[in-house]
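Notes from the pairing session

We agreed to fold both candidates in a single pass and log them together. This is the raw record for the first candidate, unedited. Please don't reformat it; downstream parsing expects exactly this layout.

Candidate A
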Amino acid sequence: MFTRRSLRAAASAVTLAVTLGIAAPAAVAADQPVSRVSASSEAKALAQNPLGASIKKLDPYVTSSPEGWKLDAPANAFSQIPAADLQKLKSQIDKMNGYVKDGKIPAPQTASGSSAAQAKSAMSSSGKHGYVKMHWYGVEFGMDKYLIGKLSGGIGAVGGVSGLAAAMGATGPAAPVVGAVAGLLVAQMYVCQHENGWSILYAVGVPPYGAVVCNPFG
């Protein structure tokens, strides 16, 4: 059964997500333990992103500003990208910039640090046990070993969707982003777990998200 607290948290996240137009949270069984998933065909599938190769080639040519991201690649770089992929990724950047303009996701300028690599992604939240990063190609979610261990007992163990967002430091526009994919993060956290205990997952594309991958460049 869902606890009153987790139901209130889930309802709050749904309201936030719908208000911001991002999508409602994926269904999560609050008190249901999560099974550990070992390396398998599922893990391999999550490591593969159909647009990964094209994203990897274009990433060095993406710059950022307070308005969002801009793709400025030379002709020879564009020639290496399949036309369909290029069209999808250009459209994706336009949509992500639209979300920045509307205040639905943080602007790249909010990233901490001064290097180009840091400025190109927005560290929209950093909590005690995780973080959320916005990239031009999607969203990166990080959860540490402690948080994963707590979530193994179900999302209710951390106080529901709002508890998960809080543990990842997700406030403002980042909170409904976490809420919308909470079920996916919990379901796949072991599949994308690294040797250091951290689980890093990516939602590639623009909201709403129906899947996560372990490697956006796969």
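Candidate B (folded immediately after A)
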Amino acid sequence: MPDRSPSRFLLISAIGCVLASAGAALVPVVTGASQAFVGSITTSGLLGLVFAARNVQLLRAQGTPSLPPAVLTTVFGIWFMLAPLLYTGVGFLATAGTQLAGTVIATFGLYVAVAGLAGERV
């Protein structure tokens, strides 16, 4: 029976996206950002969390990344990097926290997506 487990780094990358998605959803709430920003990012963060968690679930079950949740996780990361620039009254901490979470999600989400494209356990 072949080993179906992904590499440790690949799994940690996917789990990091889950944690960063949760962080992105919480940062605007705890930093007192504008209501519009809180609503948008918290909703996006929860939805991104669903895809990031599904990415981990499929990665553990199949041993290789599944492209749809990996790509959607990356898209949410890009959104978290750009969103603070589109809203007014966000504040420094909410901007920095959301963009940091977005950078982590986009970077490691893209790594998982590229590994999925390559069909590897990297």
